[in-house]
Amino acid sequence: xxxxxxxxxxxxxLRPLTDKIPKCLVPIKDQPLLDIWLKNLTRAGIGPFxxxxxxxxxxxxxxxxxxxxxxxxxLVHEPRLLGTAGxxxxxxxxxxxxxxxxxxxxxxxxxxxxxxxxxHRKRPVECEMTMMTFRTDNPSACGVVELNARGVVVGFxxxxxxxxxxxxxxxxxxxxxxFLKTLAxxxxxxxxxxxxxxxxxxxKIFSYETSEAFLDIGTPESYLRAGQC
Length: 229
What we know:
Shape: globular
Number of strands: 13
Structural class: alpha/beta
Largest sheet: 7 strands, mixed
Helix content: 25-40%
CATH topology: Spore Coat Polysaccharide Biosynthesis Protein SpsA, Chain A
Number of helices: 7
CATH architecture: Alpha-Beta Complex
C-alpha cells in the first residue's frame, strides 16, 4: 500500500528549534521524526511514498538522499503550499487507483501499522476510510471525534473549549478506492482535508484507536514529552 506523507509545514510553534530544522526532521531520541515514520511504515510493508516539501526543502532532500529509503521516496516540492487536501488531490495518480494512506507526518507516532491495516480491511461495509485516533490530555487543542457502538465516526469537534471526550483524530488515514474516486470528482478544489472533506463523510469513517505513543509535537512542551515516551 502506498502512502502520502505531509511534511511541508513551517513548525512555527516550535521556534527557535525550527528556524534551521524543518519540523519533519526534528530529532526525537536522536532520530529524525520523518525517519521514525518511514521506518515504522516500511516495517509494516507500506511503501513507496510521496513526501511533500516546502519549508527548508533542501534539508529534507538531503536527509532522504542519505537515508535507507531514498529509492522508495518521491519528493514533491510545493513552491506554494497546496493544503492538506490539495496535496492529496495533486498526487492521486501516485496511489494507482488502490487504497492508500494519507499521513500528517509532523506528529509523533510509534504505532505498529499492521493492526491498523487489518482494522481497515475489517471495517464496516459503509465506511470509506479508516482514521487513527488517540487519547489526548488536551482535548480542546485537538479535533475530538464521537463514535457509535460500531466504532464509526458520528461527530467532529475541532478545537472547541469543552469537547465531549478525549478521543482525538490523529490525522492518519487509510483511504479506500471508493473514497478516492469521490475525491477526484467532487472535491477537486478542496484545500483543507479536516474542514472541507472529513465533515462530509460523517458516518462513513471507521476509527482505530492506537494504544501506542501518539503526540502532536506542535509545542515545546509536547515536543519534550515525546522525548520521554
